[in-house]
Amino acid sequence: MNFDDFKLDERGLIPVVVQDDENDQVLMLAYMNKEAYERTLEEGRMVYWSRSRGELWRKGDTSGHVQYVRSLDIDCDADTILARVIQVGAACHTGHRSCFYRRLVQMDGSESKK
Amino acid sequence: MNFDDFKLDERGLIPVVVQDDENDQVLMLAYMNKEAYERTLEEGRMVYWSRSRGELWRKGDTSGHVQYVRSLDIDCDADTILARVIQVGAACHTGHRSCFYRRLVQMDGSESKK
Predict the structure, then answer these.
(1) What would the mean pLDDT of B37-41 be, rounded to a whole number?
(2) pLDDT tens-digit map of A47-87
């Protein structure tokens, strides 16, 4: 399955869920266009499309916090990629290992709710 | 932090990465609007906005494969939610536990690549 088989959003991008291959922590969500995807495969490290800067974002070029690809999976409707990576340093620009460091809600005993 | 503080996409939606609280498997990516988010908090089970059907999607209503909320986290730039859930049955409509059941790429020794 190639990039041209993926179902892209209105911007021609596909979201990528990034998971730490060492401990299964979800690190971040980013986006790829075709060039970012192909560069990722060629280089074996994660390359994204930066929506804010409007340019290719070779993760770690500035920070040193490179992400080496372990595997890429595509979901059932081919509109999301799951990447398992070896994360050097921190995924988040704030210095946190994961971008998801702020808890909104913590439920207890929610299993029994209807 | 409330839904109105989140950074929504052009459609007024926020993506939600859904992770199995039992084994840390990434199950799916879905989207919420404000109503879906508020219903999720009220009911303690995941309610999404279906982009294809254009309506609220109370996960499990048809399939029985309900997702009970364990926690919700927001990322650094407040444009993605991470949900940890108790998954009843399978997250994917294909019957797979996770929607990410198709491998695109498997790397070996990619750590040493530059």
Answers:
(1) 98
(2) 999 999 999 999 999 999 999 999 999 999 999 999 999 99
| Residues forming beta bridges with residue A50, ordered by sequence position | A55
Q: Cα(first)–Cα(last) distance of chain B, in Å? A: 40
Q: Which residue in the set B15, B76, B105 is minimally distant from A15, CB to CB?
A: B15
Give the chain B residue whose CA is nearest to the CA of A28: B75
Chain B residues close to A43, C-beta within 8 Å = 113
Interface predicted TM-score (ipTM) over 0.90: yes
Give the residue from B47, B82, B94 showing the smallest Cα distance to A24.
B82
A29 to B106: CB separation less than 8 angstroms, yes or no: no
Model confidence at A102: pLDDT above 90: yes
Gap between the Cα atoms of A83 and A85, Å rounded: 6
Q: Which residues are within 8 A (CB) of B8 and not within 5 positions of it... i.e. 6 or more apart?
A: B14, B79
What is the reported pTM?
0.94
CB proximity list for A52: less than 8 A, separation 6 or greater: none
CB atoms within 10 A of CB B12: 11
Half-sphere exposure of A29 (CA within 13 A, CB side): 25
- Burial status of residue B70 (CB atoms within 10 A of its CB: 0-12, 13-18, 19 or more): buried
Q: How many residues does chain A have?
A: 114
